[in-house]
Amino acid sequence: MGRCAPRIHAVKFDDNPDDLEKVVLNHGAISVLTVGFYRFWMKTWLRKLIWSKISVDGDALEYTGTAVELLLGTLIAVIILGGYLMCFNLAISVGGLAFWQSGVFNVSLVLSFVASLPLLQFAIYRARRYRLLRTRWRGIRFGMDGSAFRFVGIWVGWATITLITLGLAYPWLRMARERYMTEHMMFGDTRFGFEANAKTLMSGYLPFWFAGVAPLFVITLGMASQVIFGSFSMGAWGLLIPVYLYVVVWLYCRYRAAEYRAIFEARTLREVRTRCAFEADGLINPAWAYVGRSIIPGTIPVGLVISVLTAAAIYLAALNGGGDASFTWSLENVIFANYEGIVAKTFLMAAFWINYGLTILLLLWLWTVVYYRRFLKYLCASMRVSGLESLSDVRQRTTDDQIDSEGFADALDVGGF
User: Fold this and answer.
1) I need a surface site. Which of 76, 90, 191, 417 has the fewest CB within 10 A?
2) What is the rounded distance in angstroms from the CA atom of residue 302 to the CA atom of residue 166?
3) One domain for residues 264 and 296
4) The pTM is what?
5) For residue 378, what pLDDT is reported?
6) From start to end of 154-233, where are the E strands?
7) Percent of the chain that is helix, strand, coil (3-state, to 5)
8) Residue 3 has pLDDT above 50, yes or no
9) Do residues 94 and 111 lie in contact, with contact meaning Cβ atoms separated by under 8 Å?
């Protein structure tokens, strides 16, 4: 008798924006009022909700992380990051590139940015490790071991090759990073595998790469026209710029979709296999929704509310202790030192808080409720999983290495959700 074919299981996402919107607005408002201190609790609430919306074979993911872990991890990371950058700037100052010298400030700034890129990769690794350790499915905890420093070394090597090849080696860079992370991921006491080849991504990457080289061709053509004809008009070329940008974005989304498919289908866990049919629409449509909602029902109405409330607060501040009440948007009216008295300064601070708070809430709502929710909906709907029966005897690991949360990710603002 032949072996039965494995069952196919859908990956589902509960696409209900109401509960997500409630968490974003309520906890986002508290985060704004606390000048961002509450963001760790807001992020924890969002993760718990988003994780619970994703289910495989009817069983939802569970997030068990805490806000205190995020807070402590970030505090530690900020101290280490500050010390690292300080030592780096002291080192380059020895070579005559002190950052306080105005003539070389930009050089020092660029060098500091380049020096922070390895830390960015360190943060990405630690962030995934933390999220996996705080994620459960069917009561079994995910996990991740390996070395973040080894991961950074892999990135440095492939980033150097990518730079030398003018970007052609980028798919190898992406797959090398993902291979190392996936092969150190675990579900209970079972380790993931990774079966992929970057060559499969080149058919989607080369059109995007050539599109990136196109501007160099246009510049060369313009210089040749200048030499041959004595003049070169950008008028006709300028009309093509929006079309060119749209094509580049579409090609990039097409490549990224192929990358998502390759990575998900390359991951193995015993006999578990994933089939992913994610397409560029899963990136483009949420982006268009983001743009559309931000322009019409988002930015314009909220922008008008922000403008009216801010102008009213500045006007009241000007009436009660300085400024020019006849011209609310005068630059003089937003200089704190121009106001006298607690009432005037209170109104001015209220204007700043209204502008800052409502803008942050709008951006948070657009990213989480409008874009990210749609992206997850497309991604989950594109996936099918088989072979889950092979995980029936997976057992929980007894211990995990303790880590200081994903603080580097939050400190460098790459933690996401």
Assistant:
1) 90
2) 43
3) no
4) 0.82
5) 97
6) 185-187, 190-191, 193-194
7) 65, 10, 25
8) yes
9) no
Burial environment of residue 173 by CB neighbours within 10 A (0 to 12, 13 to 18, 19 or more): buried
End-to-end CA distance of the chain: 47
The mean pLDDT of 397-406, rounded to a whole number, is 62
35 near 29, Cβ under 8 Å?
Answer: no
CB 388 within 8 A of CB 7: yes
Tens digit of each residue's pLDDT (9 = 90 or more) over 120-139 = 898 889 889 989 999 999 99
Calculate what percentage of the chain has a pLDDT beyond 90. 44
Q: What is the mean pLDDT of the chain?
A: 81
Report helix, strand or coil for 77: helix
From 232, 251, 268, the end of a domain falls on 268
The C-alpha atoms of residue 124 and residue 45 are separated, in whole angstroms, by 21
Domain boundary among 268, 285, 309: 268
Burial of 23 (0-12, 13-18, 19+ CB in 10 A): middle
Domain count along the chain: 2
Contact (Cβ atoms closer than 8 angstroms) between residue 58 and residue 124: no
How far is it, in rounded angstroms, from Cα 48 to Cα 416? 14
Q: Which residue has the tokens 């948070």?
A: 364
Cβ–Cβ < 8 Å for 136, 62: yes
Structure token pair of residue 75 = 């505090």
**Are residues 211 and 323 located together in one domain of the fold?**
no
Point out which residues pair with 136 in neighbouring strands: 62, 141
Phi first, then psi: give them for residue 96, nearest 5 degrees: 85, 15
User: Which H or E element spans position 8?
Assistant: strand 8-13
Cα separation, 315 vs 325, whole angstroms: 5
Q: What is the pLDDT of residue 340?
A: 66
Beta-sheet strands, E only, within 188-286: 190-191, 193-194, 267-268, 273-276
For residues 236 and 149, give the distance between their C-alpha atoms in angstroms, rounded to a whole number.
50
CA angle at 366 for the pair 350 and 331, rounded to the nearest 5°: 35
**What is the model's pLDDT at position 298?**
59
Structural domain for 166, as ranges: 146-183+193-268
Total residue count of the chain as it appears in this document: 417
E strands along 288-382, which residues? none
Structure tokens at 386: 């088989």
Q: What residues have CB less than 8 Å from 125, skipping those under 6 apart?
A: 146, 148, 151, 152, 181
> Which tokens in the block code for residue 261?
């498919």
Establish if 45 belongs to a structural domain: no
